[in-house]
Amino acid sequence: MTSQQKSFGSDNHSGAHLEVIQAIADANGGDSSPYGADLLTRRVTDELRSAFRSSEVLFVFNGTAANVLGISLLADSYEAVICAEFSHLNVDECGATERILGNKLLTVATPDGKLTPELIAPRLTGRGDPHRAQAKIVQIAQVTEVGTCYSLEEIRRLSDFCHSESLYLHADGARLANAAAYLGCELGDLAQGVDVLSFGGTKNGAVGAEAVIVMRDELADRAQFLRKQQMQLGSKMRFIAAQFAALLEDKLWLRGALQANAMASRLAAGIAHVPGIEVKYPVQSNAVFAELRPEHIAALQQEWTFYVWDEARNVVRWMTAFDTTDDDVDSFVAAIRAAS
Ligand SMILES: Cc1ncc(COP(=O)(O)O)c(C=O)c1O
Protein backbone atom coordinates (compact mmCIF):
# COMPACT_ATOMS: atom_id res chain seq x y z
CA MET A 1 0.00 0.00 0.00
CA THR A 2 1.47 3.38 -0.94
CA SER A 3 0.49 6.70 0.54
CA GLN A 4 -0.65 9.63 -1.65
CA GLN A 5 0.82 12.21 0.68
CA LYS A 6 4.59 12.49 0.59
CA SER A 7 6.42 11.26 3.65
CA PHE A 8 9.10 13.47 5.14
CA GLY A 9 10.22 10.59 7.36
CA SER A 10 13.16 9.29 5.38
CA ASP A 11 14.53 8.90 1.89
CA ASN A 12 13.95 5.20 2.62
CA HIS A 13 10.22 5.85 2.46
CA SER A 14 10.35 6.72 -1.22
CA GLY A 15 9.92 4.21 -4.00
CA ALA A 16 12.47 3.65 -6.74
CA HIS A 17 13.23 5.46 -10.00
CA LEU A 18 11.27 3.96 -12.88
CA GLU A 19 14.60 3.69 -14.73
CA VAL A 20 15.87 1.43 -11.93
CA ILE A 21 12.77 -0.76 -12.08
CA GLN A 22 13.12 -0.94 -15.86
CA ALA A 23 16.80 -1.88 -15.57
CA ILE A 24 15.89 -4.73 -13.22
CA ALA A 25 13.27 -5.92 -15.70
CA ASP A 26 15.78 -5.67 -18.56
CA ALA A 27 18.28 -7.75 -16.57
CA ASN A 28 15.67 -10.46 -16.22
CA GLY A 29 15.99 -11.88 -19.73
CA GLY A 30 17.30 -15.42 -19.71
CA ASP A 31 19.94 -17.13 -17.62
CA SER A 32 23.14 -15.56 -16.47
CA SER A 33 26.26 -16.51 -14.53
CA PRO A 34 25.72 -16.18 -10.76
CA TYR A 35 27.62 -14.53 -7.89
CA GLY A 36 28.82 -11.57 -9.93
CA ALA A 37 30.36 -13.48 -12.81
CA ASP A 38 27.77 -12.10 -15.24
CA LEU A 39 28.64 -9.50 -17.87
CA LEU A 40 26.43 -6.77 -16.41
CA THR A 41 28.01 -6.99 -12.95
CA ARG A 42 31.46 -6.97 -14.49
CA ARG A 43 30.67 -3.94 -16.63
CA VAL A 44 29.08 -1.94 -13.79
CA THR A 45 31.79 -2.76 -11.25
CA ASP A 46 34.36 -1.65 -13.85
CA GLU A 47 32.49 1.62 -14.30
CA LEU A 48 32.33 2.22 -10.56
CA ARG A 49 35.97 1.23 -10.13
CA SER A 50 36.96 3.83 -12.65
CA ALA A 51 34.56 6.50 -11.28
CA PHE A 52 36.06 6.10 -7.80
CA ARG A 53 39.62 5.35 -9.01
CA SER A 54 39.38 2.40 -6.63
CA SER A 55 40.95 -0.99 -6.33
CA GLU A 56 37.79 -3.02 -5.86
CA VAL A 57 34.01 -2.63 -5.80
CA LEU A 58 31.71 -5.11 -4.08
CA PHE A 59 27.94 -5.03 -4.09
CA VAL A 60 26.03 -5.81 -0.91
CA PHE A 61 22.37 -5.77 0.06
CA ASN A 62 22.16 -2.92 2.54
CA GLY A 63 23.98 -0.10 4.23
CA THR A 64 24.59 -1.82 7.55
CA ALA A 65 26.28 -4.68 5.73
CA ALA A 66 28.36 -2.19 3.74
CA ASN A 67 29.61 -0.67 7.00
CA VAL A 68 30.36 -4.07 8.55
CA LEU A 69 32.21 -5.32 5.47
CA GLY A 70 34.17 -2.08 5.15
CA ILE A 71 35.24 -2.18 8.78
CA SER A 72 36.13 -5.86 8.60
CA LEU A 73 38.64 -5.04 5.86
CA LEU A 74 40.41 -2.54 8.06
CA ALA A 75 40.61 -3.90 11.59
CA ASP A 76 41.05 -6.96 13.75
CA SER A 77 38.46 -7.67 16.43
CA TYR A 78 40.60 -6.18 19.20
CA GLU A 79 40.82 -2.89 17.36
CA ALA A 80 38.39 0.00 17.77
CA VAL A 81 36.46 2.35 15.53
CA ILE A 82 36.25 6.03 16.41
CA CYS A 83 32.93 7.45 15.21
CA ALA A 84 30.49 10.25 15.91
CA GLU A 85 28.13 9.71 18.82
CA PHE A 86 25.07 10.15 16.57
CA SER A 87 26.46 7.98 13.76
CA HIS A 88 24.27 5.37 12.17
CA LEU A 89 27.02 2.88 13.00
CA ASN A 90 26.67 3.62 16.70
CA VAL A 91 22.95 4.28 17.04
CA ASP A 92 21.02 2.53 14.30
CA GLU A 93 22.74 -0.74 13.44
CA CYS A 94 21.75 -2.74 16.49
CA GLY A 95 25.39 -3.25 17.39
CA ALA A 96 26.06 -5.12 14.12
CA THR A 97 29.73 -4.23 14.04
CA GLU A 98 30.20 -5.12 17.70
CA ARG A 99 28.26 -8.38 17.31
CA ILE A 100 29.64 -9.60 14.02
CA LEU A 101 33.19 -8.27 14.11
CA GLY A 102 33.77 -7.65 17.80
CA ASN A 103 35.16 -4.14 17.32
CA LYS A 104 34.59 -1.63 20.07
CA LEU A 105 33.15 1.71 19.02
CA LEU A 106 34.74 4.79 20.58
CA THR A 107 32.21 7.57 20.23
CA VAL A 108 32.85 11.27 19.98
CA ALA A 109 30.35 14.08 20.61
CA THR A 110 30.28 16.51 17.70
CA PRO A 111 28.56 19.87 17.32
CA ASP A 112 27.53 19.28 13.71
CA GLY A 113 27.97 15.55 13.09
CA LYS A 114 31.51 16.01 11.79
CA LEU A 115 34.70 14.60 13.24
CA THR A 116 37.90 16.62 13.24
CA PRO A 117 41.49 15.71 14.20
CA GLU A 118 41.02 17.78 17.34
CA LEU A 119 37.95 15.76 18.37
CA ILE A 120 39.59 12.44 17.55
CA ALA A 121 42.95 12.98 19.25
CA PRO A 122 41.69 12.59 22.85
CA ARG A 123 40.40 9.10 21.97
CA LEU A 124 43.85 7.87 21.03
CA THR A 125 44.76 6.73 24.51
CA GLY A 126 45.96 3.37 25.73
CA ARG A 127 47.75 2.52 22.53
CA GLY A 128 49.94 -0.52 23.05
CA ASP A 129 48.16 -1.39 26.29
CA PRO A 130 46.78 -4.94 25.98
CA HIS A 131 43.94 -4.05 28.35
CA ARG A 132 42.55 -1.49 25.94
CA ALA A 133 40.90 -1.83 22.54
CA GLN A 134 43.29 -0.32 20.03
CA ALA A 135 42.00 2.57 17.93
CA LYS A 136 42.47 1.62 14.29
CA ILE A 137 39.68 3.21 12.22
CA VAL A 138 38.06 6.60 12.09
CA GLN A 139 34.63 6.39 10.57
CA ILE A 140 32.94 9.43 9.10
CA ALA A 141 29.59 9.58 7.38
CA GLN A 142 29.33 11.58 4.17
CA VAL A 143 26.55 12.95 4.42
CA THR A 144 26.60 12.96 8.24
CA GLU A 145 23.69 11.80 10.35
CA VAL A 146 22.56 15.39 10.81
CA GLY A 147 22.67 16.22 7.12
CA THR A 148 25.96 18.09 6.99
CA CYS A 149 28.76 17.43 4.50
CA TYR A 150 32.51 17.30 4.90
CA SER A 151 34.31 19.56 2.41
CA LEU A 152 37.08 17.98 0.34
CA GLU A 153 39.57 19.98 2.41
CA GLU A 154 38.11 18.61 5.65
CA ILE A 155 38.43 15.06 4.35
CA ARG A 156 42.00 15.69 3.25
CA ARG A 157 42.86 17.04 6.69
CA LEU A 158 41.24 14.05 8.39
CA SER A 159 42.97 11.64 6.05
CA ASP A 160 46.39 13.21 6.70
CA PHE A 161 45.77 13.05 10.42
CA CYS A 162 44.54 9.46 10.38
CA HIS A 163 47.39 8.18 8.28
CA SER A 164 49.97 10.01 10.36
CA GLU A 165 48.47 8.23 13.41
CA SER A 166 48.39 4.80 11.68
CA LEU A 167 44.60 4.94 11.55
CA TYR A 168 42.43 4.03 8.57
CA LEU A 169 39.69 6.36 7.37
CA HIS A 170 36.35 4.74 6.55
CA ALA A 171 33.38 6.62 5.11
CA ASP A 172 29.75 5.59 5.39
CA GLY A 173 28.43 6.83 2.06
CA ALA A 174 24.80 5.81 2.35
CA ARG A 175 24.09 9.36 1.06
CA LEU A 176 27.34 9.95 -0.82
CA ALA A 177 25.37 11.11 -3.88
CA ASN A 178 23.78 13.91 -1.85
CA ALA A 179 27.23 15.03 -0.69
CA ALA A 180 28.58 15.07 -4.25
CA ALA A 181 25.52 17.06 -5.33
CA TYR A 182 26.02 19.57 -2.53
CA LEU A 183 29.78 19.93 -3.02
CA GLY A 184 29.56 19.97 -6.82
CA CYS A 185 32.26 17.33 -7.12
CA GLU A 186 32.64 13.91 -8.70
CA LEU A 187 32.07 10.72 -6.71
CA GLY A 188 35.74 9.89 -7.08
CA ASP A 189 36.77 13.16 -5.40
CA LEU A 190 34.96 12.05 -2.25
CA ALA A 191 37.00 8.87 -2.08
CA GLN A 192 40.44 10.42 -2.20
CA GLY A 193 42.25 9.98 1.12
CA VAL A 194 39.61 7.50 2.31
CA ASP A 195 40.66 3.84 2.62
CA VAL A 196 37.27 2.15 2.28
CA LEU A 197 33.87 3.73 1.74
CA SER A 198 30.35 2.79 0.78
CA PHE A 199 28.26 4.20 -2.03
CA GLY A 200 24.56 3.97 -1.34
CA GLY A 201 21.96 3.48 -4.01
CA THR A 202 18.93 2.62 -1.90
CA LYS A 203 18.27 6.07 -0.45
CA ASN A 204 18.70 7.62 -3.87
CA GLY A 205 16.15 5.72 -5.91
CA ALA A 206 17.39 2.12 -6.01
CA VAL A 207 15.35 -0.76 -4.62
CA GLY A 208 18.20 -2.16 -2.56
CA ALA A 209 21.75 -1.68 -3.78
CA GLU A 210 24.88 -0.62 -1.93
CA ALA A 211 28.51 -0.81 -2.97
CA VAL A 212 31.67 -1.15 -0.90
CA ILE A 213 34.51 0.76 -2.53
CA VAL A 214 38.00 -0.44 -1.59
CA MET A 215 40.65 2.18 -2.29
CA ARG A 216 43.79 0.23 -1.37
CA ASP A 217 45.15 -2.62 -3.49
CA GLU A 218 46.45 -4.53 -0.48
CA LEU A 219 42.94 -4.70 1.04
CA ALA A 220 41.14 -5.84 -2.08
CA ASP A 221 42.01 -9.55 -2.12
CA ARG A 222 40.38 -10.35 1.22
CA ALA A 223 37.23 -8.46 0.42
CA GLN A 224 35.44 -11.10 -1.63
CA PHE A 225 36.00 -13.76 1.04
CA LEU A 226 34.81 -11.55 3.86
CA ARG A 227 31.73 -10.55 1.87
CA LYS A 228 30.79 -14.20 1.46
CA GLN A 229 31.38 -14.96 5.13
CA GLN A 230 29.16 -12.02 5.99
CA MET A 231 26.38 -13.46 3.79
CA GLN A 232 26.41 -10.60 1.33
CA LEU A 233 27.44 -12.41 -1.84
CA GLY A 234 24.26 -12.29 -3.90
CA SER A 235 23.80 -15.20 -6.24
CA LYS A 236 21.62 -13.15 -8.61
CA MET A 237 23.99 -10.23 -8.43
CA ARG A 238 22.96 -8.96 -11.84
CA PHE A 239 19.87 -7.39 -10.28
CA ILE A 240 21.96 -5.24 -7.94
CA ALA A 241 24.29 -4.37 -10.82
CA ALA A 242 21.29 -3.38 -12.93
CA GLN A 243 20.26 -0.84 -10.31
CA PHE A 244 23.68 0.78 -10.29
CA ALA A 245 23.76 0.68 -14.10
CA ALA A 246 20.56 2.73 -14.10
CA LEU A 247 21.90 5.15 -11.48
CA LEU A 248 25.08 5.68 -13.50
CA GLU A 249 23.24 6.23 -16.81
CA ASP A 250 23.32 9.97 -17.56
CA LYS A 251 24.17 10.47 -13.87
CA LEU A 252 20.72 9.59 -12.62
CA TRP A 253 22.31 9.37 -9.15
CA LEU A 254 23.22 13.06 -9.40
CA ARG A 255 19.88 14.19 -10.77
CA GLY A 256 18.07 12.41 -7.95
CA ALA A 257 20.38 13.80 -5.28
CA LEU A 258 20.18 17.35 -6.66
CA GLN A 259 16.39 17.14 -6.55
CA ALA A 260 16.33 15.78 -2.99
CA ASN A 261 18.78 18.46 -1.82
CA ALA A 262 16.89 21.24 -3.57
CA MET A 263 13.68 20.16 -1.88
CA ALA A 264 15.28 20.28 1.57
CA SER A 265 16.56 23.79 0.81
CA ARG A 266 13.07 24.79 -0.34
CA LEU A 267 11.61 23.43 2.87
CA ALA A 268 14.16 25.25 5.01
CA ALA A 269 13.49 28.50 3.16
CA GLY A 270 9.75 28.02 3.51
CA ILE A 271 9.88 27.74 7.29
CA ALA A 272 12.71 30.20 7.88
CA HIS A 273 10.51 32.90 9.41
CA VAL A 274 7.86 30.80 11.08
CA PRO A 275 7.78 31.84 14.77
CA GLY A 276 8.81 29.09 17.19
CA ILE A 277 10.81 27.06 14.67
CA GLU A 278 14.58 26.91 14.77
CA VAL A 279 16.64 25.03 12.18
CA LYS A 280 19.40 23.25 14.12
CA TYR A 281 22.03 22.34 11.50
CA PRO A 282 23.13 23.81 8.18
CA VAL A 283 20.97 22.34 5.40
CA GLN A 284 23.59 20.80 3.13
CA SER A 285 21.81 17.73 1.81
CA ASN A 286 18.29 16.33 1.94
CA ALA A 287 17.49 16.77 5.62
CA VAL A 288 16.16 19.60 7.75
CA PHE A 289 16.45 19.33 11.51
CA ALA A 290 14.25 21.76 13.40
CA GLU A 291 13.26 22.46 16.96
CA LEU A 292 9.51 22.97 17.46
CA ARG A 293 7.15 23.27 20.35
CA PRO A 294 5.93 19.79 21.43
CA GLU A 295 2.28 20.63 20.72
CA HIS A 296 3.27 21.81 17.26
CA ILE A 297 5.00 18.48 16.59
CA ALA A 298 1.98 16.53 17.80
CA ALA A 299 -0.43 18.54 15.64
CA LEU A 300 1.68 18.07 12.51
CA GLN A 301 2.17 14.37 13.09
CA GLN A 302 -1.58 13.83 12.91
CA GLU A 303 -1.37 14.37 9.15
CA TRP A 304 2.26 14.06 8.16
CA THR A 305 4.91 11.40 8.52
CA PHE A 306 8.28 12.37 10.02
CA TYR A 307 10.46 11.39 12.96
CA VAL A 308 11.22 13.14 16.21
CA TRP A 309 15.00 13.08 16.21
CA ASP A 310 15.62 14.25 19.78
CA GLU A 311 12.66 14.00 22.12
CA ALA A 312 14.39 15.80 24.97
CA ARG A 313 15.07 18.86 22.81
CA ASN A 314 11.92 18.62 20.61
CA VAL A 315 14.00 18.35 17.46
CA VAL A 316 12.42 16.74 14.41
CA ARG A 317 14.01 15.44 11.23
CA TRP A 318 12.36 16.19 7.92
CA MET A 319 13.83 14.35 4.97
CA THR A 320 13.26 14.76 1.27
CA ALA A 321 13.93 12.26 -1.49
CA PHE A 322 14.69 12.08 -5.21
CA ASP A 323 10.97 12.14 -5.94
CA THR A 324 9.90 14.94 -3.58
CA THR A 325 8.28 17.73 -5.60
CA ASP A 326 7.83 21.47 -5.16
CA ASP A 327 4.14 20.81 -4.49
CA ASP A 328 4.95 18.26 -1.77
CA VAL A 329 7.17 20.76 0.00
CA ASP A 330 4.79 23.66 -0.43
CA SER A 331 1.88 21.66 1.02
CA PHE A 332 4.03 20.61 3.96
CA VAL A 333 5.22 24.17 4.56
CA ALA A 334 1.61 25.36 4.51
CA ALA A 335 0.71 22.72 7.08
CA ILE A 336 3.66 23.71 9.29
CA ARG A 337 2.58 27.34 9.14
CA ALA A 338 -1.05 26.50 9.82
CA ALA A 339 -0.15 24.40 12.85
CA SER A 340 2.24 26.94 14.34
C1 LIG B 1 24.10 7.10 7.39
C2 LIG B 1 23.52 5.74 7.16
N1 LIG B 1 24.34 4.70 7.02
C3 LIG B 1 23.90 3.47 6.78
C4 LIG B 1 22.55 3.23 6.65
C5 LIG B 1 22.20 1.82 6.33
O1 LIG B 1 21.02 1.37 6.49
P1 LIG B 1 20.37 -0.01 6.06
O2 LIG B 1 21.17 -1.11 6.64
O3 LIG B 1 19.04 0.15 6.65
O4 LIG B 1 20.37 -0.07 4.56
C6 LIG B 1 21.63 4.27 6.83
C7 LIG B 1 20.16 4.04 6.75
O5 LIG B 1 19.34 4.71 7.30
C8 LIG B 1 22.13 5.56 7.09
O6 LIG B 1 21.31 6.61 7.27
Note the main attributes of this structure:
single chain, Aspartate Aminotransferase, domain 2, Aspartate Aminotransferase, domain 1, 4-stranded antiparallel β-sheet, 14 helices, 11 strands, binds pyridoxal-5'-phosphate
Give a description of the structure.
- This protein is α/β, with parallel strands linked by helices.
- Helices cover 41% and strands 16% of the residues.
- A seven-stranded mixed β-sheet has the order 1-7-6-5-4-2-3, sandwiched between helices. The protein has a four-stranded antiparallel β-sheet with strand order 8-9-11-10, covered by helices on one side.
- Strand 4, helix 7 and strand 5 form a beta-alpha-beta unit.
- Helix 1 crosses helix 11.
- The structure holds pyridoxal-5'-phosphate.
- Pyridoxal-5'-phosphate is lined by residues 62-64, 88, 141, 145, 172, 174, 202.
Shape by Cα distribution: globular
Helical proportion, percent range: 40-55%
Question: For the residues shown, what is the average pLDDT?
Answer: 97
CATH class category name of the largest domain: Alpha Beta
Q: Tally the helices: what do you get?
A: 14
Topology order in helix (H) and strand (E) letters:
HHEHEHHEHEHEHHEEHHHEEHEEH
The CATH architecture term of the largest domain is 3-Layer(aba) Sandwich
**Beta content:** 15-25%
Secondary-structure-based class equals alpha/beta
* CATH fold annotation of the largest domain: Aspartate Aminotransferase, domain 2
Tell me the strand order in the biggest sheet. 1-7-6-5-4-2-3
Q: How many discrete domains?
A: 2
Give the biggest sheet. Answer: 7 strands, mixed
Unreliable stretches (pLDDT < 50, length at least 5) are: none
What small molecules accompany the polymer chains?
Answer: pyridoxal-5'-phosphate
